[in-house]
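Structure ticket #2291
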Amino acid sequence: MLMRRTAQSLIAAGAAAIVLASGSPGYADGGIGGVNCTQSPSAPECEISAGTPGGPGGSTGGNQGSGGSDDGSDSGGGDGCYWAPVDGDFPPPPGKGPAGGWYSWTCVGNGIGSQEVPVWLEQAPAVSLAALAQTARSRLRLPSPQIRTNPATAPFVLVQVPVWLWVDPATWGARSATASVPGVSVTATATPTQVVWSFGDGSDDLTCAGPGKPWRPGTDPRASSSCGHTYSFSSAAAAGAAFRLRAMVTWSVAWSGAGSGGTLAPLTTTSTVSVRVAESQAIVGGAR
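Resolution: structure written out below.
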C-alpha cells in the first residue's frame, strides 16, 4: 500500500469534486516503481510497495456516509475518492511534459482526509457535475422547523380545543449552497415542500402541504382543521405527563450549473415540543 499523509480537513474546497467522469481512477505513469522520490514533487520519505504496472495510482479510501447521497461517493472511485491536483509549480518527471500534471488520489471519510503520494497524469481528470452537485448538497445548512401553535403549548392545552399548527416562516424557505472548481460551479437548492405532524397521543400523523397558516386574533379556531389537531384525552398517563408534538419537514433538492441540472435525494429536518393536555373542570355554583 502506498504511504499516505492523513489530517483533519485535508482537502481544499476548490478540489473537492475533481474526479474522473468515467467513475474509475486514471492510470499513473508506470506501476511498481513508476512513482519514486525523484519523480514526486513532495515528501522525500515517499515509499512505494506492491502495485500493478499501469494500474491506478491509488485505489482505497473511506466511504463517507451511506448510499452516496450526501458526499459525492457515487462518483470517482465510488468510495468518496477522487484525483486532486497538487498545489505548486513542480516540474514534470524526466521525459514527461509539457502536457499533464501532478495529482494525488484523495479520499475523505468521516471528517478525515488522506492523500496518496502524488503521481504524474498525462491528462487532467474531468470534472464530474454529479460529484459537484453532491458536494453542494452536503454543504446545505437547513434550519430545524420552529413549531408554532395556538393556543400556546405552555402551560397546557385543553382536551377538545382545536390546536392550530404551523411552522414559523423564518424557518421555511429555499436554502442554497454552491460547490466549485476552476471554471465550473454547481448550486444545490433545497425547498421545503411539506410538514408531517406527529402528536404523541396515538393518533395518525397529519401531512400538511406547506408550512400551515398562522393564527390571527379573531379567527375561528375551527377554521384550521386542515392543518391542526384536537386532543381527545389528557396527557396525564403519558411519559412525563406530556405528549411529544413533532414536526418533520421534507425538502426537495435540485441542482443546476454548467448548463445542466437535475434532482438529488430529499432531506428532512425535525423538531419536537412537549404538550401537556388537561381536562377542563366545570364549576357548578348554586344558591345555599
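Closing remark: DSSP finds one helix and 15 strands in the chain.
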